[in-house]
Amino acid sequence: MARISKTERILNLTSFLLKSPVPVPWAEIQGKVIGYDDAADPDALERRFERDKKFLRALGIPIEYIPLDSFGHTGYFIEKADYYLPKIQIMPEDVAAIDLVSRISPADAGPLSEALQSALQKIQIDFPAPFEIRAEAEERGIRRGARTSAESGQSENLDLLLRAMLACKRVGFRYYTMGRDSTSDREVDPYGLGHTHGAWYLVGRCLVRKDIRVFKIARILGDVRILNEDREAPDFEVPPDFRLGDHIGKPAWLLEDGRPIEVKVRFDSTTAWMAAGAIGSGDAFSEADDGSGDVTMQVTAVEPFIRWVLSFAQHAVVVSPPWLREQVSRRIEAVAKKYGR
Predict the structure, then answer these.
(1) Is residue 254 in some structural domain?
(2) Are both 233 and 296 inside the same structural domain?
(3) Residue 9 and residue 108: Cα distance in Å, rounded?
(4) Cα(334)–Cα(55) distance, rounded to whole angstroms?
(5) Around 304, how many Cα atoms within 13 Å sit in the side-chain half-sphere?
(6) How many whole angstroms separate alpha carbon 119 and alpha carbon 101?
(7) Highest mean pLDDT among 54-58, 108-112, 118-122, 305-309
(8) Per residue in 190-210, pLDDT tens?
(9) Is the same domain home to 179 and 231?
(10) Which of 11-25, 48-62, 100-114, 207-221 has the lowest average pLDDT?
(11) pLDDT at 147 (0 to 100)
């Protein structure tokens, strides 16, 4: 009889013990479980079994020897409650959250795109929803899994940045800073990658600015280069207190590499409460008796800030600085002229 592989033998043993409702002695394993039924010497078979038990326990599979249970059985046993993961209980509110993630996550979200779509599809199988709704969710997930982005260069840079981040290798690239309308060469120790506000961002220590900075991947010009690629040793260590959410979990107007600008915006009574809920921890909100209010906030990315203010239409006015107020006014005039108003 041909010897089977160690992997198959161990899987056979695990399956046999999981199926048994009672402890099984070695005498019943020998000769019955494939992998312990060949013509080897009985002592050799038992030594093989001992090595396999040790290997299984190292993997975290809880194979135990029961000297004597309450029914008089003795032998080896795997407690199913300790082996199997608990069943995931997905509540209706969880379904809503998962569905939201599946709707807003881009089909081509970079190097983690396929893993994200696969995870969403697997979770959707257990949705506590009627079959028709579940089937529709699965169909949408499968269709959204296709790569649709034409920005192949950005995807290649994402792949390379992910590889550099995992290996702790320094990278170099040319970067366009929208706030200063300028480009510069950067060398960065990539600490983390994150997706927020519909775009991918790199967070790392910039050797030019000598501080942790946030870079929008879409503003990297050309190809990213891994520096010192021939050297196997890592180029840096990620600080133990680094948290990606401390940097990309910010409003869009703070996701820019630049000097903060203090901005004051006045909101009328219709929208003041909305503005108060959107500001960050370092911003200030002052409410007037009529329900209107002033927000004083820090801004590093002017363009996202202008788009945010304009989303309030006539209900928000930039008070200061004057040059930013003028930019918003010109933007409004340009839109009105284009649409004949």
Answers:
(1) no
(2) no
(3) 41
(4) 71
(5) 17
(6) 11
(7) 54-58
(8) 998 887 767 788 889 999 888
(9) yes
(10) 100-114
(11) 39
User: Same domain, yes or no, for 140 and 158?
Assistant: no
Residue 281 half-sphere exposure, CB side, CA atoms within 13 Å? 3
Instruction: For residues 140 and 166, state if they share a domain.
Output: no
Q: Is the pLDDT of residue 173 over 90?
A: yes
- Identify whether residues 268 and 189 lie together within a single domain: no
Asked if 276 and 308 sit in the same domain, the reply is yes
pLDDT band at 142 (very low <50, low <70, confident <90, very high): very low
286 has which bridge partners?
A: 294
Look up the CATH number of the domain holding residue 72.
1.10.10
pTM, whole model, 2 decimals? 0.46
Q: Is the pLDDT of residue 340 over 80?
A: no
> How many structural domains does the chain have?
4
**Structural domain harbouring 276:** 261-338
Cα 78 to the chain's mean position, in Å? Answer: 35
CA distances 152 to 112, 158, 159, 165, Å, are 15, 10, 11, 20
Residue 327 lies in a domain: yes
Q: Is residue 253 domain-resident?
A: no
Shared domain check, 161 and 124: no
pLDDT tens readout for residues 246-293: 777 677 677 666 678 888 989 888 888 777 776 666 788 888 888 888
Residue 274 lies in a domain: yes
